[in-house]
Amino acid sequence: MGTENxxxxxxxxxxxxxxxxxxxxxxxxxxxxxxxxxxxxxxxxANIREAQSAESKADFVHKLKIADKEANELKYWLQLCKxxxxxxxxxxxxxxxxxxxxxxxxIISTSKATTK
Length: 116
Description:
Helices cover about 80% and strands about 0% of the residues. By secondary structure, the chain is mainly alpha-helical. The protein has one domain: de novo design (two linked rop proteins), CATH 1.20.1440. Helix 2 (about 30-50) packs antiparallel against helix 3. The longest helix has 27 residues, at about 55-85. The relative contact order is 0.16.
């Protein structure tokens, strides 16, 4: 079937966890935050997946930068959940998000270096 693309696989599995966390928030009637987390958290993987069919190296980097922006937004929402009362602890999601961000940051810097 081909070689595994680590960032695509990790971001996909992460999106599934984001869906579960958002559903947990909705069960607790935290609808607004749940939607924000769902949108930003699943968008990361979608942008990474879109980058896989980029038209150029610059387009590839651009799409990964969009994923990074979504990751930063998600980090904000997860930090709010961590500090707000009566919200489930998002620590494992925060840790996984950091790992994903490190991977695509490295991909971005490597791609930029090979473009020059």
